[in-house]
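Q&A log
Question type: sequence-to-structure
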Amino acid sequence: MIHVISKNTNIDFVKSRKLAISLSLGLIALSLVSLVARGGFNMGIDFSGGTMVQVRFTQDVKTQEVRSALTGFGMKDSEIQRIGESGNEIIIRTSSSADMLRDTGETIKKLLTESFPGNSVEIRRVEMVGPKVGNDLRTKGILAFLYSIVLMLVYIWWRFELSFGVGAVIALIHDVLITLGFVSMFNIEFDLKIVAAILTLVGYSINDTIVVYDRIRENLRVAKRGDYEGTVNRSINGTLSRTLLTSLTTFIVVVILFFFGGEVIHGFSFALMVGIVTGTYSSIYIASPVVLLWENRSKGSLPAKKKSAK
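Response status: OK
Response body:
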């Protein structure tokens, strides 16, 4: 087995838990401030409803010129955004009704071709979502996250015990809040791809946490009574090489997707990049310390031996 760090590593993670929790609370507070300051997320049409058209020109264009060209089509309030490093590709978002924009792609292509003679226009993508569908998708996205959290709590409670389940759920909420905060701070469009990234993050983070929990349970069988803190610390160190190796290889793949995967999955890969970092961090500094805090306050000593793995 490959070891990123020595098997005899003995870093005192538990000792620095207060500093780590303070850092987490600071990041969560910053995330909430960003959401309030921006008035919420930059909602994509998946949730807000409307039409999105991605257009590529052969030559650079100015967003104001595009806006002027579309004014006569009743789209003067549309959001126009450049994408990519070149200045010849834009995204047009509008809340106009689907009936009005039944042939949006072809109509916009015709208008822009007439307004920019000699500058060829290519419609690369057209997406249209009604307001009712957007509301339905938003509701289902929230329910999917809540269901996953509840089922994770029940599973870990059954697999280990309640304190472990609570620690895992707090770590998951921590990861999601910070990831959403970064999505808000960097003004990433919040759409179904972000929801998919969040649900992926939930699965990734809980897997890493369970590995640490399983080692804690194994070490508890041979630990001295009252040495819960030392047991937790040894367990984290014992799984540290595996945790870092898994996180590093996954992170590299997601970074490649972020830079070379294209605009369509830009938000998805960004959310996963943040989520992998927070998920690895929370498995060490949030999930396990919560279990330690729970046990110290409820029992004050080493608990009885855990039930064997199913």
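Response note: The chain has two domains: 14-43+133-298, 50-129.
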